[in-house]
């Protein structure tokens, strides 16, 4: 398990197959389903496929991807955060999600700020984007606190729901 980055309280590490139970739990929380959507992760087998076809594929293909947020003091996984290259977007976007019981503790800001710094300083990205649902006000506030600016509403595909696109420009 490669460590991507660390912060004062958190560690961001790459996914592995042992994370399947955690992925199953996270992908079925009410906040995940409301703001990210149903990814069909309804069993451990589905969770393993999610890890293989999502984060592991992304690490191999792009050198980055979504990773597990772990509490340093306990080693407990509490969420995921990372960079995503989507076929339907020109830019790389940042994504994050926490188990509901770990929301409101500053973890999302802490790990997302470190991820933005990693994207800019280590990966040398000139522009980073983020997507939120139209009613995900907490995420919008977090993105603005990180220095992102609302750009426009978009659909990733004609069949998708409308999303808000935020941008972070380095220059």
Task: List the keywords.
alpha+beta; 171 residues; 5 helices
Plain-language structure description:
With 171 residues, this protein is α+β, with helices and mostly antiparallel strands. It is 34% helix and 29% strand. It has helices at 20-26, 30-35, 44-62, 107-122, 137-146; strands at 3-6, 10-13, 66-71, 77-85, 92-98, 127-133, 149-154, 163-169. Helix 1 crosses helix 3 (44-62).
| Helical content (DSSP H or I, runs of 4+) | 25-40%
Poorly predicted runs are none
Enumerate how many helices there are, as a single number. 5
* Oligomer classification: single chain
Report mean pLDDT, rounded to a whole number: 95
Distance between the first and last residues' Cα:
33 Å
Number of strands: 8
Rg, nearest Å: 15 Å
Which of globular, elongated, flat, extended, rod-shaped describes the shape? globular
Task: Annotate the secondary structure layout.
Layout: E1 3-6, E2 10-13, H1 20-26, H2 30-35, H3 44-62, E3 66-71, E4 77-85, E5 92-98, H4 107-122, E6 127-133, H5 137-146, E7 149-154, E8 163-169
Parallel strand pairs: 5-6
Antiparallel strand pairs: 1-2, 2-3, 3-4, 4-5, 6-8, 7-8
Helix pairs in contact: 1-3
Task: Provide a concise account of the structure shown.
This protein is of the alpha+beta class and 171 residues long.
């Amino acid at each position: 398990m490669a460590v991507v980055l660390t912060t004062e309280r958190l560690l961001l590490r790459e996914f592995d197959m042992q994370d399947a139970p955690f992925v199953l739990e996270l992908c079925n929380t009410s906040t995940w389903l409301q703001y990210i959507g149903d990814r069909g992760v309804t069993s451990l087998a589905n969770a393993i496929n999610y890890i293989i076809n999502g984060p592991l594929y992304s690490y191999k293909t792009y050198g980055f991807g979504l990773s597990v947020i772990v509490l340093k003091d306990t080693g407990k996984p509490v969420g995921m955060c990372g960079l995503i290259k989507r076929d339907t977007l020109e830019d790389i976007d940042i994504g994050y999600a926490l188990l509901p019981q770990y929301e409101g503790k500053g973890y999302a800001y802490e790990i997302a700020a470190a991820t933005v710094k990693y994207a800019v300083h280590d990966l040398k990205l000139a522009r980073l984007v983020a997507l939120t649902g139209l009613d995900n006000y907490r995420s919008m506030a977090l993105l603005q606190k990180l220095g992102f600016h609302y750009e426009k509403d978009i659909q990733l595909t004609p069949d998708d729901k409308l999303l808000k696109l935020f941008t972070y420009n380095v220059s």
